[in-house]
Recover the amino acids of this structure.
């Protein structure tokens, strides 16, 4: 298989390897593990769920269709919060690396927090990002809300990684370091998922 390595000029140069590389297209954003982490973050911050509006925010993508797919995954992940009685749960992406799209996304994000503050006694902003609160504090400067942590640190992230490695290894007919391949569960959506690309 041909891979790539960086040269001194930061250019990609071919790299030959006999290793088999499996690619997993299922992201953490729509997984059951992420949903449980969001719930844990909300439970740690919100005093009265039925009086709390929750805004789940992610980095976002540049292409419209890809960003819509991400928002759909975020809606799925946020459904656990809705089922636990939070007053209002919304999802937005900031589209951080695309200036024109980001300007509109910042306005949307601020308006969601303002609207929730008008309707609920508490507003909680949860970042659906690997670590930290990202640039959201700057975007929401001057608004009233409670900030939660990102997905890490949390043991469910490790559990999700192990589950995906096991699922892809077993689907490719390879031994798994995370247990036998019978009755494979595919973390994230409970289905067989896409076959691995190699």
């Amino acid at each position: 298989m041909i891979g790539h390595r960086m040269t001194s000029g930061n250019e990609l140069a071919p790299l030959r390897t006999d290793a088999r590389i499996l690619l997993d297209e299922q992201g953490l954003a729509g997984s059951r593990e992420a949903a449980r982490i969001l719930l844990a973050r909300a439970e740690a911050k919100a005093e009265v769920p039925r009086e709390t509006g929750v805004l789940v925010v992610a980095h976002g993508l540049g292409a419209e269709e890809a960003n819509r797919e991400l928002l759909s995954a975020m809606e799925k992940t946020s459904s656990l919060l809705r089922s636990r009685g939070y007053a209002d749960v919304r999802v937005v992406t900031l589209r951080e690396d695309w200036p024109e799209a980001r300007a509109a996304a910042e306005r949307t994000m601020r308006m969601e927090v303002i609207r929730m503050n008008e309707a609920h006694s508490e507003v909680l902003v949860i970042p659906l990002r690997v670590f930290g609160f990202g640039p959201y504090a700057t975007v929401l400067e001057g608004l009233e809300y409670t900030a939660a942590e990102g997905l890490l640190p949390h043991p469910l992230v490790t559990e999700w990684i192990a589950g995906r490695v096991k699922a892809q290894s077993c689907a490719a007919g390879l031994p798994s370091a995370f247990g036998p391949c019978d009755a494979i569960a595919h973390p994230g959506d409970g289905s067989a998922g896409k076959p691995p690309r190699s």
